[in-house]
Design a protein that fits this description.
Blueprint (H helix, E strand, L loop, with lengths): L6 H8 L12 H9 L3 E3 L7 E3 L1 H9 L35 H21 L10 H5 L1 H11 L13 E4 L6 E4 L3 H13 L2 E7 L6 E7 L3
Antiparallel strand pairs: 1-2, 3-4, 4-6, 5-6
Helix pairs in contact: 3-4, 4-6
C-alpha cells in the first residue's frame, strides 16, 4: 500500500468497534478500505464490514502511524506494531493495560481472519495463516488467555518450533502450567499431547492445529 487512507477513511477506521472491528461508513468508504486490505465484507447477511488484521493494527498504531502492508502480516506476526510473546524474550514481559488491549485486539483480529478464511466460517478451528505461523499463532492463543510468557526473571511458557510438520513444542516450569496451556490450546482449536524429552526428562507439550 503506497498511500495512507484518506482522512474520512481514517475516521471510519478509528470509529470501528474496539472488540469486533465492525465498521460504519458510506459504501464508497467501505469499498475503498476493502480494496486496501484494511476491511472485509462478511459473506453472510447482513454483510457488515469489519477490519482485517491489518486494519486492526493500523487503528492500534494511532493516527500518525504509516499503514501496514495489506493482509501480509496477520495478528501475531512481528510487524513492529504487535508481536505475540513466545517466551524467552530478553526484555521483561509487559503485562500492563496497553499490552492487554493489544493482545485482545490481535486475538479478535485472528478470530475474524478465521471467520473470513475458513470455508465454513468457523472461528473454533485454526486457519491457514496459523498453520504457516505455528509458533506465533500458539503463543498468541496462550497470551490472549492470560498465561505468563517466560521472562528473564519470571517462569512461564516458551513456544518453540519442532522438526515435525505442523507442530510446536510448549515448555513450562511445571506440570500445572503445561496442563493449563494444553486446555487453552485445545479450546482454541489445537490438538495437544504431553511428552518427555529423552535427554533432559523435562515434560513438554506437542501442539498441532486441528483440521476438523
Amino acid at each position: 500500500m503506497s498511500r495512507p487512507p484518506s482522512a474520512a477513511q481514517r475516521r471510519v477506521i478509528d470509529a470501528a468497534d474496539p472488540v469486533t472491528g465492525r465498521l460504519r461508513g458510506t459504501e464508497a468508504q467501505l469499498a475503498a478500505l476493502v480494496r486496501r486490505g484494511l476491511a472485509f465484507r462478511h459473506p453472510r447477511p447482513p454483510h457488515d464490514h469489519f477490519l482485517t488484521p491489518a486494519g486492526h493494527r493500523l487503528r492500534e498504531a494511532g493516527p500518525a502511524a504509516p499503514p501496514p502492508p495489506p493482509r501480509s502480516a496477520p495478528p501475531g506476526e512481528d510487524s513492529g506494531v504487535f508481536a505475540a510473546r513466545v517466551g524467552g524474550e530478553e526484555a521483561a514481559p509487559d503485562s500492563g493495560p496497553e499490552r492487554l488491549r493489544e493482545v485482545h485486539s490481535a486475538w479478535q483480529g485472528l478470530l475474524e481472519l478465521r471467520r473470513m478464511t475458513n470455508p465454513d466460517g468457523s472461528v473454533d478451528r485454526p486457519c491457514g495463516w496459523e498453520r504457516s505461523h505455528l509458533v506465533r499463532a500458539a503463543a498468541l492463543a496462550l497470551e490472549a488467555a492470560g498465561h505468563p510468557p517466560e521472562g528473564p526473571d519470571t517462569p512461564g511458557y516458551r513456544v518453540r518450533a519442532t522438526p515435525q510438520p505442523e507442530a510446536v513444542a510448549v515448555h513450562g516450569p511445571d506440570g500445572t502450567l503445561l496442563r493449563a496451556c494444553a486446555l487453552t490450546l485445545e479450546r482454541a482449536g489445537w490438538q495437544t499431547g504431553e511428552h518427555t524429552d529423552p535427554r533432559t526428562r523435562a515434560r513438554y507439550l506437542l501442539a498441532s492445529p486441528r483440521r476438523a
